[in-house]
Structure formats: structure tokens, C-alpha cells
Amino acid sequence: MTSLNLRCITTIVFCVAVFCMGTATLIAQESAREETLQWDNILLPYPHIYDYIGGYAALSRNSHTGELIITTNGITCCTTTGGDGYSPALGAKYIHRLNRSFFFSPRITLEGRGAAMKGNEISRSTLGTDNKPETVVYQNTLDVSITTLGSDLMMGVWLLRKQNVYLAGGLSLSAVMAASNSISESILAPSGITYARSGGTTQEVGSQPLSTRFLSVGLRAGAGILIPLKGAWYLNPEILYHVPVSGWSPDFSAWKSSMLQLQCGVMYRMERD
Predict the structure, then answer these.
(1) Which of 226, 219, 18 is nearest to 103 (CA)?
(2) Which residues lie closer than 8 Å to 89 by C-beta, 6 or more apart?
(3) CA pair distance 248, 66, nearest whole angstrom
(4) For FRET with 272, which of 24, 100, 132, 204 sits at 20 to 30 Å CA-CA?
(5) What one-character-per-residue DSSP string does 245-273 give?
(6) pLDDT given for residue 147 in this prediction
(7) Which domains does the chain have, with CATH numbers?
(8) DSSP letter at 45?
(9) Single pTM value for the model
(10) Residues 247 and 256 sit within 8 Å (Cβ to Cβ)
């Protein structure tokens, strides 16, 4: 592990610790304040505290960075340094209100974390029109497919209690359920040259399983709102951003991915005593 990565991890851990300590202090202060308030249960009934449970569907934009090298039979066939991709996600969440201001929200989610990662451009000499030598520029594209089963442990604060607007953040653990890649090769220049097998400027090279860590660690933070629908049902749009702490592969520690996720969920309100 490089000193830069060590400093980054140390900074993240410190920030998380400060956030947790600050949240715990505010929760204690809020709880103490509520206990000192004198409520008249007839003229001013004590406000109810609700929990919420439900599910959501989401669309994620995955941004991969860092070097990844794919080899076949000891031969390097693709080297890439990043790319982007979109993938769906499904999950379930529970919002447990600690008091009127703070809540704890565990989540379980099944996510796609893949992307299309562009390789380096390669120039090769070949025979073109009338068997004349030409320099052809190729580029490989590595389509990475990663499916994870994750658990998020988040703390949140209600910014606007009456409007049910909140901020949340916490730790994200993702177990890799499946990982594979497929490689395609494209002719970028000159125009007019095609592959004999595919008849176009792109052809599939092959696919294979991808070696990754079993567990990926990250931090997530975002904002959301609970919009009343009917009765105890609420619409729950939420936006989250994922920051990676650990890389995807033990062999390529710099290969990581961040994620911007848009969720749309339906939550059921449960009244607590």
C-alpha cells in the first residue's frame, strides 16, 4: 500500500469517526432536550415517531478508474485505465427514527457495478487497398460486468421534519457475486477498413471470468424525501454518491469505482409507541 493510499484511508477513517462522534453527541443532546420538555397530552399531544420500511429500484452511473490488465495464456490482450457505465439496482431499506431529528437506516441491495473501459490505442501495419502497406489504429474495449450483494449501514438527520427531507451517510459493504469481462476490438483509422469475420469495424475478441476481491468497502452519502401517497404509503426518491475505500482486485489496487445512484422507492409508515 502506497503512502498516498494510506493517507487517504486514514483521512476517511478520521472523518467517519468525527461524523459518528458528532452524531452521537447531537442525538444525546436531542434526547435530553426532549426529556426536559413538559407536554400536555390533551392540549398539545406528544408528536408520534414513525419508522418506515420498503423497497426501491435504482439506476447507477459507475465510474471506474485505475489500471486493469487482462491477460490470456500469459499474453496481455487489454490494458485499460478507466471507463463509465450504467446499471440497475434493487434494494430494501428500513428507516428507524432514534428521535425526532435522527434515524438509523440499514439497507440491503443487489447492484450492477460494471462499465465499458477503453484500452490504449494501438497502431499496426497491415496490407490495405491494392495490397499497399497501411498503418491501422485499433482500440480494445473491456466490458466489465460486476454484480454485488451489499449492505449499507447509514445514519441520517431530518433537515425538514414536516416535509420529510433528510440527509444520510455511512458505511457500504459489497460482496461480489459474479464478475466477468468481454473484450472487443475496434478499428479507429483509417476509414474503409473492416474485419473480414464481422464485416464491420468492431469484432468480439473473447470473454472470461474476472478475478476480484470478495468484499468491497466504501462510503455512501446522499439525500432523500418521503412524499405522502395514500394512507401510510410514501414515495421515496433518493440520490446517493458512493466513494470507494478498497479496490476491486488484489492484483490491481488502483482499480476502483465510484457511483452516483438515483433511487425511487415506496415506503410504508409504521407508528411506534
Answers:
(1) 226
(2) 57, 58, 59, 60, 109, 110, 111, 112, 261, 263
(3) 10
(4) 24
(5) SS-S-SS-TT-EEEEEEEEEEEEEEEE--
(6) 94
(7) 49-271 (2.40.160.20)
(8) P
(9) 0.74
(10) yes
Are 82 and 67 within 8 A, CB to CB? no
pLDDT tens track for 159-213: 887 788 999 999 999 999 998 888 878 877 777 777 777 777 787 777 777 788 8
Helix, strand and coil in the chain, % to nearest 5? 15, 65, 25
Query: 86 - beta bridge partners?
Result: 61
Residues facing 239 on adjacent strands: 223, 262
Closest CA relative to residue 203, chosen from 187, 227, 215: 187
- The enclosing H or E element of 129 equals none
Residues 6 or more apart whose CB falls under 8 angstroms from that of 246 comprise 213, 215, 216, 217, 218, 256
Collapsing DSSP states into helix, strand and coil, what is residue 28? Answer: helix
Dihedral, CA atoms, 34, 35, 39, 45, nearest 10 degrees? 60
Q: Phi/psi of residue 262, each to 5°?
A: -110, 120
Q: Which three cell numbers stand for residue 57?
A: 429500484
Distance CA 116, CA 269 (A): 40
Listed residue (120, 97, 106) closest to 269, CA to CA = 97
**Residue 33 DSSP symbol:** H
Interior CA angle at 251 toward 250 and 254, to 5°?
A: 80
